[in-house]
Specification:
This protein has 256 residues and is α/β, with parallel strands linked by helices. The chain has 8 helices and 7 strands; from the N terminus they run E-H-E-H-E-H-E-H-E-H-E-H-H-H-E. Helix 1 packs across helix 8 and helix 3 runs parallel beside helix 4.
């Protein structure tokens, strides 16, 4: 059951939406009775998402780092949705690697997907929103874009760029367009599970004040709120959802 009545029938495009945070967000917007189209590069995951959630308007195979592919994908948005009200630009990749071992080709790939993809999808969306002077754009940033984290130099840099891009667009297109960056900390997604062993996950949890990872559904709930009129006065912000991780130094058991 939906929580935000104004999201009903909103035309929503979500990138990187065949798994993890993106898929949970697509499911949440379907619950809000929005009209949802998903973008993803993985055909098998896309096909499974469409089979599992038949209320999805469509699923488009697209490499968000390819300008031509993004342009073609938004032509399908025009055909399938007749426009766009909300963009949730979520597609991204992460590779855990020491800085001196990062090949330049990997650096470029991470920037192209994580930052260029946000630029391209936002540009196509704003072109369609501007004639009506109404819209919401939400980027998936990261707490890694708010502070340094070893072994993720390429990812961190890309997410810092996403956050400032969100702030810039919020200023440039105010007052009719709202733009925010949602900045998750540790979220228990398939990507996270592939990078971390159980022991590593437990060690991370011990350093988070709430002692756990977020669920993708919790992040999806924040996206729904920020897209709704309940958040009508929130724009240009990087909003952390991290269990208190970035609040300061956490010393477990200090209250004892």
């Amino acid at each position: 059951m939906g929580v935000y009545a104004d999201l009903k029938d909103k035309r929503v495009v979500i990138t990187g939406a065949a798994s993890g945070i993106g898929l949970a967000t697509a499911q949440r917007f379907l619950e809000e009775k929005a009209r949802v189209m998903i973008f993803d590069w993985d055909q098998d995951a896309r096909d499974k998402a469409l089979a599992d959630f038949p209320d999805l308007n469509d699923g488009v195979l697209v490499d968000v780092s390819d300008p031509g592919a993004v342009e073609r994908a938004f032509s399908q948005v025009d055909d399938g949705l007749g426009g766009i009200d909300v963009l949730i630009s979520n597609a991204g990749i992460s590779v855990r690697m020491p800085f001196l071992e990062i090949p330049y080709e990997q650096w470029q790939k991470v920037q192209r997907i994580n930052l260029d993809g946000m630029f391209l999808c936002a540009q196509e969306s704003i072109k369609r929103m501007k004639p009506h002077k109404n819209g919401v754009i939400l980027f998936t940033g990261s707490t890694n874009g708010l502070e340094g984290h070893p072994l993720y130099a390429d990812y961190n840099a890309s997410k810092a760029g996403v956050i400032v891009l969100a702030k810039t667009l919020a200023m440039e297109f105010a007052p009719w367009l709202r733009v925010n960056a949602v900045c998750p900390g540790y979220v228990l997604t398939p990507m996270q599970k592939s990078e971390y062993t159980e022991e590593m996950l437990e060690k991370v949890n011990a350093g988070i004040p709430l002692n756990r990872h977020a669920s993708p559904e919790e992040v999806a709930g924040l996206f729904a709120y920020l897209a709704s009129q309940e958040a009508a006065f929130i724009t240009g912000q990087a909003i952390a959802i991290d269990g208190g991780e970035t609040s300061g130094q956490y010393i477990k058991g200090l209250e004892d």
